[in-house]
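<amino_acid_chain>
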Amino acid sequence: MIRIKPSIALFMISCCFMLSVPAFGQTKVTIEKAEIVNNTTVDGERVRKLYDAVLSSGDFRFMSDSAWQFLDKDEVHAFGNIQIDTPTERIWADTLIYYNILELSKLRGRVIIEQDSTLLFGNSVDYNFATKVGHFLDEIRLEDTDGILVADSGIYYQNSDSAEFRGNVQLADSAQYVEGDSLFINRETKFLRLFDNLIVIDSTNNALLTGHYLEADSTGRRYLSDDAYLRSIVTDSTTTEADTTHIFGDEIELTKQDTTSFIDAMGNVRVWSSKFSSLSDTLKYNSTTELFRLYGDPKAWHNNIQLSGPFISVQLKDNNVENLTSYPSPFAVQEDTVTGRLNQIKGDTLSAYFTDGDISKIDIYPNSELLYHTKNDANEPDGAVESSSPKTILYFDKGELVRAWMGQNQGLFLPEYTELSERKLAGFIWTPELRPIKPTREPLPQLPPISADRPFELPLRFVNRTNVERQ
């Protein structure tokens, strides 16, 4: 029913932040080119001013309109149209300040970082070569071949190969849209966590997730908690009819093995679909067998039938209910759609079978007990049948009882009287007020759509380099 597969874009987010730029202080800075060289003093410090400069240090090379070398403290400031080339990335910025003692580089104004097929845009980036930590201070935008990610800020930890994104995190690719307050990812283990006000819209699988915490990894596992919600829309392959299933719980875990998807939901689990609804402590679902298993004093509803028992299984076929089974000591109630009276049956094991969405047969054994209200030709109540038997089989046509088979029956016919409508078998359970209802509001993204436009006018050197590569 539900096929959840990992998004490649989610697991490859961190690769664009591997800023392995050599520090200026590691080797001597070489002036490869400068139209004007001017040695002067600024606030008592010796400064070498360079214009239209090209500097290098080992395999690190950068160009700028101008650069100041602070000779006494080995500090470099660069201004205007900056391009930095290293073996692993290219960087563009409007200004650069490098503190050799701290091994800290500050990139400001129209910062673009290119690595392989990934582009990162920001206004302020601090990178510490000693700790291998990069701080992206505002307006991060990541673009790769799979999609776009934006956030208010981010931190990259190169030593642990992990990254954080904080504030209004959005990710969009061809398969899904993701939104949340913060995102943490480890590239090496391909493990991520998404926090608070999250929504995942999976367009490929017609699924939607919401909650306040999500874990995901490369195996396809998804763990959702704190007001967890899963919506899945499945179209029957034999018809054009679509069925929507809504699952709520304290926790929902989605896993995949080969072509089979599994759903495990825990804690106040509620299910609603047009075919059936249920309430339980725990739910387990297998997409290959189309079998729901409910544990922890579950209750299941189908049309006007409520089934209660310690364990309930709901067997689907082509997304239609085919069979309900419960044991031990289940209790089933069918509400008469005309009289409103409650037909009741109980025993050790109950199996209910459905045809074209309507109840067609109920088997209950052993120790079956039945209370069934009868009607006259005018569809008015005219009594009830109460019986006990080792086994009872009830046959239905379009939801109406047409025949009953009982082995070694012990029973009686109760003529109509005032209190008959209130008669109940021992252990009676009828709780329609607990039945989950269809959600009335569809979860929607809270943030504006990701803009197709870059956040600023592109630097001239970046534009020129892009034009050359296109030729």
In short: The radius of gyration is 34 Å. The longest helix spans residues 460-470.
